[in-house]
Amino acid sequence: MKLTRRGVATTAGAATVAAAAVLMQRTTELGGRWERTNFRGRRVHLRGGLAAGLGSVVAAAVATVPGRPGETAGAVLATTAGGVFGLLDDLDPTPAATRGLRGHLRALAGGRVTTGAAKLLGISSCAVGAAALLTDGGRRGATRSVPLPVRMADVLASGALIAGTANLINLFDLRPGRALKVATLLTASMLTQPGTTGDLAAAAGGVAAASLPSDLGERTMLGDTGANALGALLGSAAAAHPRPEVRFAALGAVVMLILASEKVSFSAAIAKTPVLRAIDGWGRQP
Question: Tell me: the pLDDT tens digits for 195-206?
Answer without folding.
Answer: 899 999 999 999
